[in-house]
Amino acid sequence: MSENVLRIAVQKSGRLSEKSLELIRSCGIDFYADGRVLRQRASNFPIEFLFVRDDDIPTYVYDGVADIGIVGKNEFDEKGLELDIVKDLGFSKCRLSIAVPHDFAYDGLKSLEGKRIATSYPNILTKILLENGVSAEPVFVSGSVEITPQVGIADVICDIVSTGTTLRMNGLEEVEQIYFSSAVMISRKGFSSSTDEKASILFRLLERIDAVNLAKNKKYILFNLPAGKLDESAAIIGGLKSPTVTPLMDKNWLSVQAVVSEDRFWSVFEELKGIGAEGILVLDIEKMTE
Ligand code: ATP
Ligand code: ZN
User: Fold this and answer.
1) pTM to 2 decimals?
2) Range with the lowest mean pLDDT among 8-22, 69-83, 120-134, 155-169?
3) CA of 118: how far to CAs of 100, 123, 151, 174, 282, in Å?
4) Closest ligand 1 atom, CA of 163?
């Protein structure tokens, strides 16, 4: 095992796996992952993957088995280990919610006083109940939380929800969203600012992630513009820097290039057409720096 290889723990298979690997691949890092090999070295970047269960990721990072890991913030907070979040990755968004059977008279968290609440996240739940001055009894179950009220193990549940369909199918209703999660990259305390040589590999990785994220939801547009309309087009495009402008053979026209965020794209497109822009070309941006 070489010293200067950054070890990253990612979920072997589950809701985080694909997005985690996609993120690393989008950074131009090549590796092989087929779900059977549990340890894999990337071919063109000093990084090694450990494919593990998501529950184990915080512990592996804490124990130094892995240098960094990608895990849901929910799992990170539930474990409660002293670790750093080096980056919020934004994907695998989900929430922890209180859900109750249809005949449960819910009127705010206070209605949970003295109730049994089944959950896989007793620590997060206990903290939130405490903050709200509610005394209830968390009942730990590691899976199939939705079934617990029907079988009499609990009165209500506190579980991960993304659309609410599973809850409805089990006769439950989401009544309160109490905690929000997305995937985070974690490291042991102080690792990213340490003199550990592997911290510089992490720095390079984070730089690439930032470049990929910055390019996300941005489009590169090119168009021809009547020469007198440049100021107007710059006002439409907005942003901090002026667009790039190239003269054309025909002195009455200019070629303009700019980066536009996708959410504004259609209004920019229509307004540019409105001032006489022609031949508008739109391109995806793969990576970008400020
Ligand atoms: P493992 O076998 O690795 O223990 P698991 O069954 O515990 O997997 P998954 O269901 O794959 O875990 O969820 C992993 C993480 O993905 C969760 O901890 C949460 O952060 C996030 N997640 C869970 N459910 C959803 C969802 N419906 N939508 C988006 N993200 C989710
Ligand atoms: Zn798990």
Assistant:
1) 0.86
2) 155-169
3) 11, 12, 11, 14, 50
4) 27
